[in-house]
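thread: overnight batch results

M.L. [08:02]
morning all. the overnight job finished for the chain we discussed friday. pasting input first so we're all looking at the same thing
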Amino acid sequence: MTTYQDHQYIEKELSWLSFNERVLQEASDKTNPLIERMRFLGIYSSNLEEFYKVKFSDLKRRILISKEQDIPGASYELLKKIQKRVLIFDQELNILYNDLLLEMARNEIFLINERQLAENQKIWLRHYFKYKLRQHITPILINPDSDLMRLLKDNYTYLSVEIIYGSEIKYALLEIPSDKVPRFVHLPPELPRRRKPMILLDNILRYCLEDIFYGLFKYDIINAYAIKMTRDAEYDLVTEMESSLLELMSSSLKQRLTAKPVRFIYQSDMPDVMVNILRNKLNLSKYDSILPGGRYHNFKDFINFPNVGKAHLFHKPLIQLRHLRFDRFLNGFDAIRTGDILLYYPYHTFEHVLDLLHQASFDPVVLEIKINIYRVAEDSRIINAMIHAAYNGKKVTVVVELQARFNEEANIHWAKRLTEAGVHVLFSAPGLKIHAKLFLISRFENGEINRYAHIGTGNFNEKTARLYTDYSLLTADARITNEVRQVFHFIANPYRPVNFKHLIVSPQNARYSLYRLIDNEITHAKKGVSSAITLKLNNLVDKGLVDRLYTASSFGVRIDLIIRGMCTLIPKLKGVSDNIRAISIVDRYLEHDRVYIFRHGLKTKVFLSSADWMTRNIDDRIEVGVAILNPVLKKRIIDIIKILKNDNLKARFIDQNLSNRYVPQGRRRKIRSQIAIYKYIKSFAQVD
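M.L. [08:03]
and the structure it wrote out:
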């Protein structure tokens, strides 16, 4: 294998920030409905918060470890590059927010601040504060003994209050309780005008500062400034060997609550003295992100910006499509037995999967259900189906991934509920997450056991199935179901060897299988046979796989990449990646499915997978990819990928400069892939 130089890769952290810039581009795109643009501000903010909790925190730890052990490695210069880019993007966000406020005003939607209140609204707000809000407000007084490291929460924004009386200054913090009271509050009509504005919860507190502190302190002037802190989201699983994973995760979540801060944002006009007091109280260092910001933080709440104004200001929902085969049969298992079924969300409805599991919970000939859950909905119908199946005497095994980041607490809750219902609950080994999207249902039919399997690219989650693009393959093909059965055996005994022919299973055979598939195309290209690889992934960062793609390109294999997030591979490097084209698509739905296509001559192999091409997904998780054996379904996936590759409205090039240039339309007709895919699926919805 050729050895490639460091400059032939993009740092994954900078590549991730480039992805989030694409989200910000959607907020600035005037072809998007106005309310949806506001929501993209929320998505950008939510993404950035997770970046700091995870990727920035990991980089900081690597820097500190390498410094302590005098090991060259993680770069402080990279950390500074991150800070610089985030500062630029955040400034763009604040400018864009103000522009959107003006645009909303032109559309008779008014999000006002505390200085713009009419007299009748001031009276109403005093009443609202007294009866709806005051009970949730407890000032945190800042004094020499205040332990802000322990008191501040990283999912909240605060007002830092400066209380001035003569030459004396006191400080306090107010938590903005957006988990208990709506962040967006509708005000009564402004009199004598009839418009109905909204106000942010932050500004209600700003207006009611005197109501909060009256009688507590004497003051001449009282000011409030927005701040937000983000903590490291990692946790330490090292403890006594006899502790169960359930106990380990419960203990580790408590660590996260008091983990060290890695980011501190403060309102840019906050006095320097105040900034320094808070910085010292939070024990922030030069390795942490300390950035001035605007008047509002926690823009992630804007994801839920209300549908206000005229209908054209937000997306009209696309009606989710039903698969006709399920409507032709009263029994979902009969539908699957007639041939493999492929669902593509959110274009197809997730109800088919929910109905199938519900039916299995009381079907008298169902003997056993096995399923693994990673992130499920808050009120999961799937969990309820598994509980009812156990009540109905079915043998039910649920593999619960307790290490699913930010879903650990919910999954601990589900594990306890399932266990109480008599469900056999399995957990992964510490450090070996189970990210596969499987279920297996065994039925006793005509004197023999037949099995039905689900292999997907996304979670069993009713909510995200309306927002994320993902595939579900439902099959009764014994070639697949027998291997899915082996995966569940592997999950129960992860160190026992197993063999797979039609499945790509991490960490069992994934790296070897993917190398072999790429090398196969290289071999055919060397023989002069037209060879191509197409990959649709969330992230492409594994060095071994990137290097293999570079080598394939150098031998003439044409490679098309559709990468939503991080991509450390650099396309179009002379002599290295001349034959690689990479795009990223950000639109109304989150592109989440993973597809691998390998072609030479007239032969094509297509795989759906739960795994991105990251080292953790290939070597350190249990992931499952499946070969599509049905030629009709294989063609449909290829057709959908072709539509995505031809997108010229929402596709951006991935390049060395992280420019996020839009793919030019030229003289071609406009293709917005997500809308085109919906129309494509709808075109055969009545013939399946």
